[in-house]
Design a protein that fits this description.
two-stranded parallel sheet; 56% helix; 17 helices; single chain; binds tryptophan; mainly alpha
């Protein structure tokens, strides 16, 4: 079986470190592993509109931001197909047929949808499009016969929903679709990177993000004002590691060689943590180290972005070509789906002959 990746992001803002460690970095590694037959990376503008229907301009403006972020972290259009969801009508068609295979109560039980409804205060006035986006996500994934979907942990319920739809479709209409597997980050800190304020998740609306496109100075400021241990007041006080986001970020980003380079007094992260817990290690020193680690990771990304920004029409051309390629693939799947559902009347010579015979006999 071909190994195919599909994944994507809603274009509602620039991408941040949470996206980076939760999914982007992994995608680049997978892309460069050469192990995959095809890789599709989707800018999910249609999905973004399900909760931004009144603000299409926001979605429109952020397409290029997400594309620039993709390319600057190292997604390569020669190896990965970058495309825009709304340019593929096949995804709407598939969603429409899959809707018959999902119950309202099943959608209501989706934990991600539930928490998003709360977050957006939708409660009594949930847009139908938003409510059904897990179904459209199943269309996104199955349209490419994806076998692997590298995403953040919050997308687990979407993948469960997709698997159920695939099983149900294959059971009702015969083996057609492929059940995908989710690929989560293996590092615990990367699974759910907290915001710089220590809140559960990096989120644009909370203003606690470090963006991939932030300037060196912005990153430094954000790191220096990060939430640590509120009880660690004087340097000599013992400090807590749990819930201290400077250490969570180090768990996510720091490599052994960073110590040799920036903090040679410590052998590794465990030694640094031990000293912090014991007391005698100040937040500023740890933050300066984290800043050095992050700047090293972000500098090449920022530099590539600067280059790409010089030729924006070229970035749109990449998206257009990617969308054309993705369109052809999704069209192939839609044809198979319609054949399985027996709604391909004009290609069905048997049906036409059968009907003709029936009427001749009358
Ligand atoms: N729901 C994803 C997000 O919020 C975006 C997305 C849409 C997606 N369709 C997808 C991700 C299919 C993986 C596979 O970022």
């Amino acid at each position: 079986m071909a190994k195919i990746i599909l994944t994507g992001d809603r274009p509602t803002g620039r991408l941040h470190l949470g996206h980076y460690v939760g999914s982007l970095k992994r995608r680049v590694d997978l892309q460069n592993s050469g192990e995959f037959d095809d890789i599709f990376i989707m800018i999910a503008d249609a999905q973004a509109l399900t909760d931004n229907a009144d603000n299409p301009e926001k979605v429109r403006q952020n397409i290029i931001e997400v594309a620039l972020d993709y390319l600057s972290v190292g997604l390569d259009p020669a190896k990965s197909t970058l495309f825009i969801q709304s340019q593929l009508p096949q995804l709407c068609e598939l969603s429409f047929y899959y809707m018959n295979l999902v119950t309202v109560s099943r959608l209501q039980r989706n934990p991600t949808v539930k928490s998003e409804i709360q977050m957006r205060n939708f409660e009594a006035s949930i847009p139908v499009g938003f409510f059904t986006y897990p179904i459209s996500q199943a269309a996104d994934i199955t349209a490419f016969m994806a076998t692997i979907v590298p995403v953040g942990e919050d997308q687990l319920p979407m993948l469960e929903q997709t698997k159920e739809i695939v099983r149900k479709f294959n059971q009702v209409y015969g083996d057609t679709l492929i059940e995908p597997d989710i690929l989560l980050p293996d590092n615990k800190a990367c699974l759910r990177l907290p915001g710089t304020d220590g809140k559960a998740k990096m989120s644009k609306s909370l203003g606690n993000c470090i963006y991939l496109s932030d300037s060196e100075e912005d990153v430094r400021k954000k790191v220096m004002s990060m939430y640590t241990d509120p009880d660690h007041i004087r340097v000599q006080d013992p400090g807590r590691i749990e819930g201290n986001c400077v250490f969570t970020y180090l768990d996510a980003f720091c490599k052994p060689e960073h110590f040799e380079k920036y903090l040679p007094d410590y052998e590794n992260l465990d030694a640094l943590k031990e000293h912090y817990k014991r007391g005698g290690l100040g937040d500023v020193k740890v933050k300066k180290f984290l800043n050095a680690v992050l700047q090293e990771e972000l500098a090449p990304i920022r530099a590539r972005r600067k280059e790409l920004e010089k030729d924006i029409p070229a970035v749109y051309r990449i998206l257009k070509e990617g969308s054309e390629k993705a369109y052809a693939v999704a069209e192939g799947t839609l044809r198979k789906v319609k054949e399985a559902m027996k709604i391909n009347y004009f290609d069905d010579a048997e049906l036409i002959a059968e009907q003709a015979k029936k009427y001749q006999e009358q």
